[in-house]
Design a protein that fits this description.
The protein is α/β, with parallel strands linked by helices and 247 residues long. The chain is built from 10 helices and 5 strands; from the N terminus they run αβαβαβαββαααααα. It has a 5-stranded mixed sheet with strand order 1-3-2-4-5. Helix 3 packs across helix 5, helix 7 packs antiparallel against helix 8 and helix 9 packs antiparallel against helix 10. The protein is elongated.
Length: 247
């Protein structure tokens, strides 16, 4: 309800229409509304861009807005910056050290924090909806289901990584029950959660980092589409076990 309320208020103020109709669910912000709206959400993913954005990166950002439309804790927003005329919103871009050479620049704002977290892309191909969602999941307390993940098991993974060995054994037992009782389409994923817990118990928390590095290396190589998808899903599950400073 909060997001709909915000959109209603912005529409009354004449700000409720996105600069580009293909980014449905993106809330346009300006210098007057920015702080007021951002403060209402646990996390806000904001794209600073030209006033009328287009292209593949804009389309990928729009996919995030569509995929997260039901999240009441997350805001997906845009700041359209003009470098001509009255130079609308250029002051907002300057506040966060963003220049037109950086567009599109994505920042994640967390409730109660003054400095945003930048989304860093090594190459243009890194700017994808899935990577943006992984970024939100890694840097905030907002839950987003990533491909291959199962919410019940993600919750157990969160509990597992902050528990001691005795409690971890109990959590592993719960995960094994899920492995046997979940719908068939989730059984394969459940096996990955269980095996990951077992490996951590055997080798320690360092297993997560080592396995993440191994998967990243394989993903950077030449592999089939099916194998790549499977590895990306395993990487997403591993992220559920990683401590934030390891991401």
């Amino acid at each position: 309800m909060l997001l709909y309320y915000v959109v209603f208020i912005l529409s009354v103020a004449g700000l409720g229409q996105s600069s580009d109709e293909d980014c449905k669910g993106c809330v346009p912000l300006d210098a007057h509304s920015f702080d007021k709206v951002i403060s209402k959400f646990k996390a806000s993913l904001v794209k600073f861009d030209v006033a009328f954005p287009y292209g593949e990166k804009h389309e990928e950002f729009a996919k995030v807005a569509a995929a997260t439309k039901d999240s009441i804790d997350l805001l997906i927003a845009e700041v359209g910056v003009k470098d001509y005329g009255k130079k609308e919103n250029s002051d907002l871009a300057q506040r966060y050290g963003i220049t037109k050479d950086d567009y599109p620049a994505v920042r994640l704002f967390l409730q109660g924090k003054t400095e945003p977290i930048p989304f860093i892309q090594k190459t243009d191909s890194d700017f994808t909806a899935e990577n943006l969602k992984r970024f939100i999941r890694a840097q905030s307390d907002v839950y987003l289901g990533l491909p291959g993940c199962v919410e019940q098991l993600d919750r157990l993974a969160e509990e597992f990584k902050t528990s001691q060995d005795k409690e971890r054994q109990e959590i592993l037992g719960k995960a094994k029950i899920f492995e046997e009782t979940l719908p068939e389409e989730h059984r394969k994923a459940a096996q990955v959660y269980v095996k990951t817990m077992e490996r951590i118990l055997e080798r320690g928390d360092v297993f997560v980092q080592l396995e993440q590095s191994r998967l990243e290396g394989l993903l950077n190589g030449k592999i089939s589409k099916d194998k790549k998808r499977n590895m990306e899903e395993r990487r997403n599950i591993l992220q559920s076990f990683a401590h934030r400073d390891e991401l």
